[in-house]
Prior knowledge:
Elements: E1 2-6, E2 9-14, E3 18-26, E4 32-44, E5 49-60, H1 66-80, H2 82-94, E6 99-105, H3 107-118, H4 121-129, H5 138-151, H6 156-166, H7 177-189, H8 191-205, E7 212-221, E8 247-254, E9 260-267, H9 276-284, E10 292-295, H10 302-308, E11 314-319, H11 326-332, E12 339-341, E13 345-352, E14 359-365, H12 367-392, H13 396-407, E15 416-418, E16 424-426, H14 428-435, E17 440-445, H15 452-460, H16 463-475, H17 488-516, H18 520-527, E18 531-536, E19 540-545, H19 550-559, E20 567-572, E21 576-577
Parallel strand pairs: 7-10, 10-11
Antiparallel strand pairs: 1-2, 3-4, 4-5, 6-18, 7-8, 8-9, 11-17, 12-13, 13-14, 14-17, 15-16, 18-19, 19-20, 20-21
Helix pairs in contact: 1-2, 4-5, 4-8, 5-7, 5-17, 7-17
Domain Transposase IS4-like: 255-498
Pfam families: DDE_Tnp_1
GO molecular function: DNA binding; transposase activity
Amino acid sequence: MISWVLSNHWYTCYNIDMYIRTTVRKNKNETQTCYVQLAHNTWNPETRRSEVQVLYNFGRAENVDRAGLERLARSICRYLGPDELLRFEARRNYGTEFGFESSKPFGGAWVLQGLWKHLGVDRILTQLLKERKFQSPVERTIFALVANRALAPMSKRAVEEWVAQDVYIPDLPEIPLHHLYRAMDFLLEAEESLQYQVFCQVSHLFNLEVDLLYFDTTSTYFEIETEDDEGLRRKGHSKDSRPDLPQAVIGLAVTRDGIPVRCWVWPGNTADMSVVQEVKKDLVGWKLGRVITVLDRGMASEENLRYLQRAGGHYIAGERMRAGKNTVEKALSHPGRFKTVRDNLEVKEIVIGDGEASTRYVLVRNPEEAEWDKAKREETLDKLKLELARIGELNGAPHTKAVCSIIAHPTYGRYLKTDKRGQPRIDKDKIKAEERLDGKYLLRTSDDTLAPEDVALGYKQLLQVEDAFRTLKSTLELRPDHPSGGTRHRLEDRIRAHVLLCWLALLLVRIAENQTGQTWRTIRAHLQRMHVGEFQFPTARVHQRTETEPDQHQLFKALKIPQPPKILNITTSDCRIT
C-alpha cells in the first residue's frame, strides 16, 4: 500500500507495495524525533518473515515538504492518467461521497477559446449574425469546428461525437450534425467580411508588418476518380503527387511572421500564374497601403509582374535560372563581388538595361547550400555513370527505350548530350554550367528602395508560406472529407467552408507558436493533459479541472490567457452555478 498524509488526513490511492511510514527515535534529552520514509516490505527467506526496507528518507517530519509530497502524489496520478488524478483530487476535496462519471481533455480548447476571444472572432461572428434569426449557437459551433481542426482533425460527422464525448468546451455540451452544416453555410456567406475584419483585428493587436506579403499555392486532392464538369474538383498539376485524382487549388497569403491574412480556393486545373491578378485585386481592396508581394518562380510571368505594379504596388520574384532568358544570362555573368549579409547569405546587386527599361536583380548565394549542391551533383553523376554502363549492355528495343528514358529524365538529362550515333554521353560543358549555379538563386524586384539584403531575406521568408501549407496538410489535415451525397453546388460550398475553417485554425496555431516559441504539436501535447472531470454527488453534479502543471502555467503566461477556474460549473437539482 502507498498512503499519503495530506491536510492531516490519510488517503490510500493504489494497491502497490510501497508506502509512506513514520519512525520515532528517542533522543538523549528524552525528546523524540519523528522521521518520514518511503518504504516497502520484502520477504526474508532465512527468517521466513516480512521485513521493512527503506527506499528513501524524507527527513524529520517537521521539515518534510508536504506540498512536495502532494505534487509527487499528483505526478504519480498523472502518470497513471488524468482520470486517476481527478479521482485523487476529488477524494481530497470531497471525501468519498461521489460518483466519477468521466474526464475529457480541456486545456487545448481553453487556450484556443482564449485566443479566439482575444482576436475578437467571437464578436465579429456575433455582429455578422445579428440580422440572422438562428436558433442554434452558430458562433460556438464554428469555434468547435475550428478547435477540432487544431486538436483532433476529423470528419464533420465525427465532430458531433467529439464534442459530446471527447472534449470539454464551455457552454457547448453537444452539437447536432445539422447545426454543424448550418454553421458552415453561414461561414461561407460571411467569408469576405469575416476575413477582412479578422485581418484588421489581428494586424491591430499584434502590430503586424503588412508591407511585405508572401503568397503561394498548393493543391489538395479528393478520394474520387471522376472530376466535375464544372466546379472545384478538377484534375490539374498536383503538388501532392496525385495527378490521377481531382483536386482543388488553395492559395494563402501570410505576413513575414507567418500569420495567414487571407485564403483562396480555385478549381484544381487552375494554373498558378492565372491567380495572381485576383489576389492582387483582393488585397488592394483591403487598403493595406504599400504592399510588396513576394512570389515564387512559378508565378513570375511578365504579365503578372506588370499587374502587381499597378496602384503603386511592388514585387519580389524568383527567376528561373535555367530558362535561357537573355536578361537572366546577363545577370548571372555580371561582374562584381558578393556582399555578405546575415543568415549565411551573400548578395550582389545587378541592374540590366538603362532608364525605364532597366531591370533590377539581386543574385543570392548561400555557401553552405553551394557545398550541398556540389555533393548532390557528384552523387548524381556517379549514379548516372552506372546507369549509362547498364544501358550500354542492352540491345535492340530495350536499349532504345532506356536511352529515350534517361535523356528525358528530369535530373540525369540535365548532364547528357547525344553523340553522332544518338547515344547518351555526359556533357562536361553542362556540368560546368551547373557548377555556376551552386547555392545561388536570382531575384527580380520592382522596388528600388529595398536594400539587396532586404530583397534576399524577404524572398527567403517565402518559406513561411510553405511551412503554413505543411501545417495545413499535416497538423490540421486540410484535405477535405470524402464527399458523400448532396448536389455538386452544396459539395463545393462545403469544400470552401472547410478551407475557411482550416484558415481560422492556422491563424490561432501560428499566433500560439509565435508567442510561445514552441511548435503547436508540443503546445497541444502539454495542454491536452489538462482534463475536466464530471462528478455526481447526491445533490449536485460538478465539473472540476485537474491542477495546472508547470508547462501549462508557462503557456498560459506566454499567451496572456488566465488559468481556467478550478470548478467550471456546479449543477444542482434546481439550478446551475458556473
